[in-house]
Structure formats: structure tokens, C-alpha cells
Amino acid sequence: MKTLTGVTLALLPLSALAASTEYQDIERGRYISVLGDCAACHTVDDDRPLAGGVPLETPFGTLIAPNITPDDATGLGRWSLEEFKAAMTEGVGKGGYHLYPAMPYPSYTLMTDKDIHDLWAFLQTVTPVENDIEANQLPFPFSIRGVMRGWNWLNFDERRFEPDPEQPDDINRGAYLVESLGHCGTCHTPRNFMGGDGGDKFAGATIEGWYAPNITPNRHVGIGAWSEEELVEYLKTGGNRFGFASGPMADEVHHSSQYWSDSDLSAVARYLLSGAGLESDDWDREPPEPLGEDDPQVRAGSHIYFDRCSGCHTPSGGGEEGIFPQLASNPLVNGDNTTSLIRVVLAGSRPVATDAKPTAPAMPAFAWNLSDEEVANVLTYVRNSWGNAAPAVAAGDVADIREALEEE
After folding, report:
1. PANTHER family, from UniProt (predicted)?
2. For the ranges 236-240, 254-258, 356-360, 402-406, which has the lowest average pLDDT?
3. Which residues constitute the domain of residue 258?
4. Cα–Cα distance for residue pair 73/94, rounded to 1 Å
5. Rounded distance, CA 106 to CA 179, Å?
6. What's the half-sphere exposure (Cβ side, CA atoms, 13 Å) at 357?
């Protein structure tokens, strides 16, 4: 006979059993909200959780994440569970208006009814906050929500998650977390011109001025060279020997993945490293040959590196464990897109601080004393040294990102 804190369930009154079940649903829903990273978009002030107000920059304009506290006037207080379920799985809000996919319903549509129910139960316990948000700040014609009917017809497939019977339970759990609640593809899969799934799953994409890197098992530009333990370490602590979470990923680690259970983190790592969610093994292609030492950019960049970078990252690119990431044989360095690399060199970065590692390392900014050409040269050197191999970085790309940073 099952017990609850040492008390036989059969001896508890029905009201106590109901209260126990309700509490378990709410606590489970709280964890679902963490898995779904609700706070990253819906919390500006930690003293007013989920009251909305976070600006979401999209290629089509700005959206403001709404208030999802149970406030009657400005939140979800007058919504029903069925209306909430429709928003999560169909992208349709109360009254029938269409949501924009900045709210990742194309991923949440995979959620189980139990997870939606428990998330809803938890949201009812959040302190109501009166905070009226004008979510839709897109310019015409994108401000017309009706256009989402066409977008959904072309880009959205309403469905539920179905475990793969040929995969073990942990891989299926990881698939559910990555594809649905974690909505990893929202950032890491390229978008088409409409903002829909552009194919080449998990191959990396630019978001909010950063590059969400390739998270396929490709060893040269993806995470195939990472061990399961290193991937779990990154998601739990905000960094590992290859890099530290910055930009939008820092928000994800801060609000979400650092609080995931170890078993869920391991399931995600196993799923991603297995390549089980990919339709082909294109991620296993051969890496390119590195540029030679006599390449003008490599030669010029080597002098800059030993003058400005080697003190922290070491002359051999090995870094310092737990403080400065290694640059040698680093897939993040070899990536097809250099947006984040250029941004970090120009503007510097202080990665996320987590409960496990509350003191985050920092990278100083070099925009003030390195020209566009010098930044391009040193990155070209790094991308073609110590086991790395990647195309040269163009000074024009550095100039574009410098200009974008100045406008932020």
C-alpha cells in the first residue's frame, strides 16, 4: 500500500488525498514552468514573477511578452484551462486571436495534456500582478494578427509528442524535453524568410544579435566532441572547457536549465549527442583544411593573439580550466557563423552566473583598440590554429557588427 510521508493513504480522509494530489500537480507544474523557461520571457522583475514586459526582438519588429499571472484584468485570471491549452498547442489566445511564434507554440504543441494541466495549476498559484502589456508592437502589416492564419498553414503542424519505440526511455525523455518544453530548435534551427523552420535542424541560427551554435553531433562545428558530462556541466553551471553561456543562452541557463534535474539533463545530453532527432547524418561530414601559416590574415592575426589574447587563453590556445575557455579544437570557434565570436571580441562578455558557479568569468572588450581588420585577422588566426579549421573572417563582417553594437 502506498504511503505519503509515512502515513498510509487509505487512512487519510478524501479531502486530504485531494489536497495532496493538488499539491503534487502544482509542484510538478512549477517544474514544468522551469523546463519551459517561462521566466526568461515573462519576468522582468524577480519581485513580480511572470508579470510580463520582456521585449522580444524579432526580424519583423518587437513583441512584448504578456502578463501570465492570474490577474483578472491584465493576466490569465479569466482564462479557462481549455483556453490556455489552445494557446499552448494551437497558438490561439482567449477570444480566438492568433499568437505570434515568438511564443513557441510550434514546440509546445508537443506537450502532454498532463504537463499542460499541471503548468496551469501552478500558474493559478502565482501572485496576481496588475500589469497591462501591449504585446503587439510590430509594424504594419505584421501587426495584423490575422496573417498568422497563413503562417500557421505554411509553418505549423499541430501534433503531440510520440515516443520512438526503437529508442530507450532516456532518449525519448530527452527528445521530449528538447523538441517540446525546452524548445531548443526555436533558437538553434535556421529560420526561413517567414520566421518558420528553415530546415537543417539544430545547425545553428542568428538570434538577437548572437549566434545560437550548431548543436548536432558534428565533431568539428557541433557538440559531437563534447562528452555527456561536459554538456550536462554546460547546462547546469553555465560553462565548460569549450565556452560559457552568453547572450540569450545565458538567460536560458539562469532561469531554466541550471534547475533541471540531473536525470533530465542527462537525457537531453544523450538525445542530442545520439543524433536521434536528425533525419540524416550530414552532420558527420569531413572538416575543411585549415588556412596555412603563410596566409596573410593568419600571419597578422598571430601577432595580435600573442600580444592581446595569450595571457588568458595561453599561447597554445589551451585556456585555463573554469576561467578561460580553451580555443584549441573548439567547435564553437569553427562554426560557420562568426557573429558571436566577433561580438565577444568587440564588446566583451560576462557569462551567466549560476548557483553552482556564482562567480562568472569575464572577457574584456577590444572595440576601443582593435580595428575591424585586426579583429578579423586575430579571429582568422584562432579559427585556423591548434586543430581548428574554418574560413577567414571578413573585416566587413566585423564592421557590420560594430555598427549594430553601437546602435544597441
Report:
1. ALCOHOL DEHYDROGENASE CYTOCHROME C SUBUNIT, BLL4482 PROTEIN-RELATED
2. 356-360
3. 183-284
4. 13
5. 10
6. 21
Task: Dig out the grid coordinates for 31 from the structure.
Answer: 517544474
Single out the residue of 272, 259, 264 nearest to residue 188, CA to CA: 272
pLDDT band at 6 (very low <50, low <70, confident <90, very high): very low
d(Cα 344, Cα 18) in Å, to the nearest integer?
A: 53
Instruction: Supply the pTM of this predicted model.
Output: 0.89
Q: How far is the C-alpha of 320 from the C-alpha of 313, rounded, in Å?
A: 7
Residues in the chain: 408
- Tell whether 201 is covered by a domain: yes
User: Whole-angstrom Cα distance, residue 175 to residue 170?
Assistant: 9
CA-wise closest residue to 322 among 234, 214, 222, 225: 234
Q: Residue 85, Cα to own-chain centre: how many angstroms?
A: 23
Tell me, yes or no, whether 159 lies in a domain. no
Rounded to whole angstroms, the Cα distance separating 269 from 37 reads 18
Omega of the bond prior to 141 within 30 degrees of 0, cis? yes
Give strand pairing partners of 147. Answer: none
Of 49-63, 262-276, 300-314, 325-339, give the lowest mean pLDDT range: 49-63
- DSSP state string for 244-283: E--HHHHHHHHHTGGGS-HHHHHHHHHHHHHTTT-SS-GG
Query: Residue 180, exposed/middle/buried by CB under 10 A (0-12, 13-18, 19+)?
Result: buried
CB burial of 356-394 (b: ≥16 within 10 Å; e: otherwise) equals ebeebbebeebbeebebbbbbbbbbbbbbbbbbbbebbb
Please report, for the domain that includes residue 18, its CATH number. Answer: 1.10.760
Sign of CA pseudo-dihedral 302, 304, 310, 312: negative
- In the DSSP assignment, the letter for residue 178 is I
In the block, residue with C-alpha cell 492570474: 70
Q: 253 and 325 share a domain?
A: no
Identify the domain boundary among 284, 304, 322. Answer: 284
Rg for the chain (alpha carbons), in Å?
23
What is the secondary structure of 349-362 as a DSSP string?
A: B-----SS--S---
